[in-house]
């Protein structure tokens, strides 16, 4: 599954996490999260997998794009 920048921001919002907290938990730099969420660059597949795994382990369900676009919900 591809992670959209908007999903990343929304997931952090549901968890009440800062960019720094997500980055620390995922083992990536804060600038990676910041630049991705601002559409400044695309994530490498390995980095994307780290973010997805971290969010899912925290209780986030990432919804694939459908009629209304990608989404997130908390389990």
Automatic annotation (TrEMBL):
Gene3D superfamilies, alphabetized: lambda repressor-like DNA-binding domains (1.10.260.40)
Residues annotated as domain HTH cro/C1-type: 9-38
Domain of life: Bacteria
InterPro entries: Cro/C1-type_HTH, Lambda_DNA-bd_dom_sf
SUPFAM superfamilies (alphabetical): lambda repressor-like DNA-binding domains
Gene Ontology MF terms in the entry: DNA binding
Name of the protein in question: Helix-turn-helix transcriptional regulator
Taxonomic source organism: Ancylobacter polymorphus
